[in-house]
UniProtKB/TrEMBL annotation:
Family: In the N-terminal section; belongs to the enoyl-CoA hydratase/isomerase family. Belongs to the enoyl-CoA hydratase/isomerase family.
GO function term, MF aspect, one: (3S)-3-hydroxyacyl-CoA dehydrogenase (NAD+) activity
Species of origin: Sphingomonas panacisoli
InterPro entries: 3-OHacyl-CoA_DH_NAD-bd, 3HC_DH_C, 6-PGluconate_DH-like_C_sf, ClpP/crotonase-like_dom_sf, Enoyl-CoA_hyd/isom_CS, Enoyl-CoA_hydra/iso, NAD(P)-bd_dom_sf
Keywords from the UniProt entry: Fatty acid metabolism, Isomerase, Lipid degradation, Lipid metabolism, Lyase, Multifunctional enzyme, NAD, Oxidoreductase, Peroxisome
Descriptive protein name: 3-hydroxyacyl-CoA dehydrogenase
3-hydroxyacyl-CoA dehydrogenase C-terminal domain: residues covered: 474-558
Length: 674
């Protein structure tokens, strides 16, 4: 097996090259090859300096995550990096693409770093529930200070070559198309410079104020996660002891995270997200349809948000409404959203104008005739949608994809009113559509393979994470979400206050609870609107105009800043229902509340799997992470159920009288996992 590492001599400079597609992950063979390359350069008297670079699209993008949890082969990355740094000849890192994680740490072990302008460097380990375990938490603060080290390691966001250069992490920005030549020239420039700059020999100044400010600024974002605090502890350790002391602390903190369930969950989700993009029964090389122009029918909240996804990706959108006033309002909201993003520095004003410039508003459906993909985001009513699909069938060009943004209606029925059911698909965006990353791609019974493959491939360029769903009410996410309502209401009737139910969920890590979510969406959504017909607690609230945040009162009372507080009126209404029912009071622990709410969702997930409505359990987890804010450190409902133990889930369901899905029962009895 040839090594992914080769060495090339350029007179007195030895270039060590990695060729390990797709991202030059630092697997065992790469680490061994690097070690051999450095030894060769050090031993050869005619070599005065060395360059490390990578073939393909990026410099090393980190340790090989697929090796985690398996016995380590070859030299440890830290050992290789220490060897690079100990070299008595200068070693220059030549960076392009994204030097991430262990890749960034390799550059820090080098004496110098050069990068092309488009390069990025970062330590995203925290997003895997880890920390830079090969010296990154000790070398970054010694080169660039505590503040930047905290930001890079604990948030995991990469920084540009320019920012890294300004911070001293990169010594020179070189030509975009002349990286190797410029790196060799740089290596010659520094070949005789002594002492060699070694990060481990520098000291990092303590900056307790920066640490406190950083912790405060990120408290909400880091809530529930173990890894950010571990990264902060390691960076702080870089300022209080020797390099060796810091490395020992880094190693200890790294191992604790690696052994924990949070990192297992976050590494699982890294691969689950990428797996979701693959459709098992469609060849990866399926010819895709070209999507150069998109049509959106409906300029409401969803239509506007959907349009923004394509405009931001530079894809022109023709947006259709039935009345000028609604069209103007919709276009105005799109512009306002972009202007707000520009104010936050996300877009330049030029970019805003460019995006608005490829938005074509119209009242005429016929203007969609040249669109390659048409997405309807109109009123959630089957008759209205079928009428529209009938019209689109007569307007759209041959080969155009016709998509519905429906959140639960039957896409097959829409397809069947057209002469081209193979071109019809569901694209269920989550509100706000320009923000939420999840896209449920609903595969109709007759959806053509290339149509599905085209829409799946479109997700990434428009910033979405796509998951394939079959046609069933609520598809994957909402179908599971609907299983929470019953148990929540039962607990209300057993005397558990709404705020207690919600707090159990937010303490679990969900962004909001059942009743907070109802207040946000609107208590009146789906209400029959007859104030005299009061059959449920919800009816009673709606009848009193308690419609949620929009009326400053719903399940909670809200102050002018929309901060919720428990409502005495709601407590009274619940007590009134309770006194009329024969429901006995029941005390619940937080764990029992969580089980009562989430086990039925897992149970529904098992049915979704069994019916083939989702390809994999991990797809279901991707839906919940990206569509509903499930805490990624718990991996998603199906991963979480595995950590709870499926036998415990079954027992909990049976205790609450919930019929157990056959697949869940089978797996629990067989001691298997999803
Ligand atoms: N290890 C193994 N496989 C990886 C990988 C990695 N580090 N990174 C990507 N892949 C696979 C990925 O699964 C996919 O496979 C293919 O490469 C293309 O990836 C000791 C402990 C680099 C920005 O966290 O962020 O270093 O689906 O689809 O959109 O301190 O990949 O084709 O079979 O994402 O162009 C730290 C993770 C590791 C970076 C490219 N590094 N990777 O994005 O392609 S821990 C990371 C990414 C570590 C040290 C610590 C992205 C990318 P397949 P892709 P992309």
């Amino acid at each position: 097996m040839t090594s992914p590492i080769r060495t090339e001599r350029h007179d007195d400079v030895l270039v060590i090259v990695s060729n390990n597609p797709p991202v030059n992950a630092l697997g065992a063979a790469v680490r061994s090859g690097l070690e051999a390359g450095i030894k060769e350069g050090v031993a050869d008297a005619s070599i005065k300096a060395m360059v490390i670079r990578c073939d393909g699209r990026t410099f090393f993008a980190g340790a090989d995550i697929t090796e985690f949890g398996k016995p380590m082969q070859g030299p440890g990355l830290g050992t290789v990096i220490d060897m690079i740094e100990a070299s008595d000849k200068p070693v220059v890192a030549a960076i392009h693409g994204t030097a991430l994680g262990g890749g960034c740490e390799v550059t820090l072990g080098c004496h110098y770093r050069v990068a092309v302008p488009s390069a990025k460097i970062g330590t995203p380990e925290v997003k895997l529930g880890l920390l830079p375990g090969a010296g990154g938490t000790q070398r970054i603060p010694r080169i660039a200070g505590v503040k930047l080290a905290l930001q890079m390691t604990a948030t995991g966001d990469p920084i540009s070559a320019k920012a890294a250069h300004e911070a001293g992490l990169i010594d020179r920005i070189v030509g975009e198309d002349s990286l190797e030549a410029d790196a060799i020239a740089f290596a010659r420039e520094v070949a005789d410079t002594r002492p060699l700059p070694r990060a481990s020999e520098k000291t990092a100044a303590a900056d307790p104020a920066a640490v406190e400010e950083f912790k405060k600024a990120n408290a909400r974002k880091f809530r529930g996660f173990d890894a950010p605090a571990a990264n902060i502890r390691c960076v702080e350790a870089s300022t209080t002891g020797t390099f060796a002391d810091g490395i020992a602390i880094e190693r200890d903190e790294f191992m604790k995270l690696m052994m924990g369930t949070q990192s297992a969950a976050q590494r699982y989700m890294f691969f689950a997200e990428r797996q979701a993009a693959k459709v098992d029964d469609i060849p990866a090389d399926t010819q895709l349809r070209k999507i150069a122009k998109v049509g959106v029918v409906g300029a409401g909240t969803m239509g506007g948000g959907i349009s923004m996804n394509f405009l931001s990706a530079g894809i022109p959108v023709t947006i259709v409404e039935t009345a000028q006033e609604a069209l103007d309002r919709g276009v105005g909201v799109i512009r306002k959203n972009y202007e707000n993003s520009a104010k936050k520095g996300r877009f330049t004003q030029e970019k805003v104008e460019a995006m608005m410039g490829i938005l074509i508003p119209t009242l005429d459906l016929n203007d969609l005739a040249d669109c390659d993909l048409i997405i309807e985001a109109i009123y959630e009513n089957m008759d209205v949608k079928k009428e529209l699909f009938g019209k689109l069938d007569g307007i759209a060009k041959q080969g155009a994809i016709l998509a519905s943004n429906t959140s639960y209606l039957n896409v097959n029925e829409m397809a069947d009113v057209t002469s081209r059911p193979g071109d019809v698909i569901g694209m269920h965006f989550f509100s706000p559509a320009n923000v939420m990353k999840l896209l449920e791609v609903v595969r109709g019974a007759k959806t053509a393979p290339d149509v599905l493959a085209t829409v799946m491939a479109l997700a990434k360029p428009i910033g979405k994470v796509a998951v394939v769903s079959g046609v069933c009410p609520g598809f994957i996410g909402n179908r599971m979400l609907s299983q929470r309502g019953g148990p929540a209401n039962t607990m209300l009737m057993q005397g558990v206050p709404p705020e207690r139910i919600d707090k159990a969920l937010t303490d679990f890590g969900m962004p909001m609870g059942v009743y907070q979510m109802s207040d946000l969406a609107g208590v009146d959504i789906g209400w029959h609107r007859d104030p005299n017909r009061i059959e449920t607690i919800r009816d009673a609230l709606a009848a009193k105009g308690r419609w949620g945040q929009k009326t400053k009162k719903g399940w909670y009372d809200y102050d002018e800043n929309r901060n919720p507080s428990p409502s005495p009126e709601v407590a009274e209404i619940i007590e009134e229902f309770r006194s009329k029912s024969n429901q006995a009071r029941r005390d619940y622990t937080d764990d029992e509340i969580i089980g009562a709410l989430l086990y039925p969702m897992v149970n529904e997930g098992a049915k979704i799997l069994d019916e083939g409505m989702a390809q994999r359990a991990s797809d279901i987890d991707v839906v919940w992470i990206y569509g509903y804010g499930w805490p990624v450190y718990r991996g998603g409902p199906m991963f979480w159920a595995n950590t709870v133990g499926l036998d415990k889930v079954v027992a909990g369901l049976e205790k609450n009288g919930v019929p157990v899905a056959p697949l869940l029962k089978r797996k629990a009895e067989a001691g298997e996992k999803f």
